[in-house]
Amino acid sequence: MGEPPDDAALALALADQADALTMPRFGAVDLRVDTKPDLTPVTDADRTVEADLRKTLAELRAEDAVVGEEYGGATEFTGRQWVIDPIDGTKNFVRGVPVWATLIALLDDGVPVAGVVSAPALNRRWWAALGHGAHVIVAGTPRRLYVSDVDDLTAASLSFSSLSGWAKRRLREKFVELTDSVWRVRAYGDFLSYCFVAEGAVDVAVEPEVSVWDLAPLDILVREAGGTFTGLDGVAGP
């Protein structure tokens, strides 16, 4: 697999730090769950992880900006900026479903150059760095990743998260048309859809409404695995 470059190595170390905080809280009987203004849940683990990672970055990368799901930050996306989603899949985390992960990325002028997706409850971690490929570590064993060679939509496996977002964008009918045109549809959801694209297990992942912290590490993971990552408008980037 080779040694990751400095920024990717730091992202991996931050993921270790996050895992040490999230796993003890996963399934904890005293887990505190609040509701944010957008009606999505946030736990004490979400807030603790992001605050802890911000503290480390302030010590080790004081000149870099930071933006995160729970504590915000400037979103001009110029220069070097770390992007943190302390727990992607908080609803799963709250319900005891092991499909959740800490997402960490470094942007350089808005372009992801390093990213980590750490899913300790699944015993998996994905990472990528610009020019260094995409990788997964499963139960301590590393493997280089490549997207599939499927180039026919009728032979493609597609993954998504939910239908409600498509309805809000008034795109539900178009999305259903898309699902009717592919070989197979599954709702692996959240980060896992894109990680499976990078692994070559899924060919297409689509979501209608997400934030930069949901996508930044997934962008470079898919691109470094040989795939394409765009918005619904076809413009490249998270």
Task: Please explain how this structure is put together.
It is a single chain. By secondary structure, this protein is α/β, with parallel strands linked by helices. It has helices spanning 6-25, 44-60, 90-95, 164-168, 172-181, 190-199, 212-224; strands spanning 33-35, 41-43, 65-68, 80-88, 101-108, 111-119, 124-129, 134-138, 141-145, 157-159, 184-186, 204-205. The strands form three sheets. The chain has a seven-stranded mixed sheet, with helices on both faces. Strands 11-10-12 form a three-stranded parallel sheet, covered by helices on one side. Strand 8 (134-138) and strand 9 (141-145) form a beta hairpin. Helix 1 (6-25) packs antiparallel against helix 2 and helix 6 packs parallel to helix 7 (212-224).
Short overview:
The chain is built from seven helices and twelve strands. It has helices at 6-25, 44-60, 90-95, 164-168, 172-181, 190-199, 212-224; strands at residues 33-35, 41-43, 65-68, 80-88, 101-108, 111-119, 124-129, 134-138, 141-145, 157-159, 184-186, 204-205.
Structural class: alpha/beta
Low-confidence stretches: none
Main sheet overview: 7 strands, mixed
Biggest β-sheet: strands ordered side by side in the sheet: 3-4-5-6-7-8-9
Helical residue percent band:
25-40%
| Binned strand content | 25-35%
Number of helices: 7
Helix and strand element order: HEEHEEHEEEEEEHHEHEH
Q: State the total count of DSSP E strands.
A: 12
Shape: globular
Radius of gyration: 17 Å
Topology (elements, then pairings):
Layout: H1 6-25, E1 33-35, E2 41-43, H2 44-60, E3 65-68, E4 80-88, H3 90-95, E5 101-108, E6 111-119, E7 124-129, E8 134-138, E9 141-145, E10 157-159, H4 164-168, H5 172-181, E11 184-186, H6 190-199, E12 204-205, H7 212-224
Parallel strand pairs: 3-4, 10-11, 10-12
Antiparallel strand pairs: 1-2, 4-5, 5-6, 6-7, 7-8, 8-9
Helix pairs in contact: 1-2, 6-7
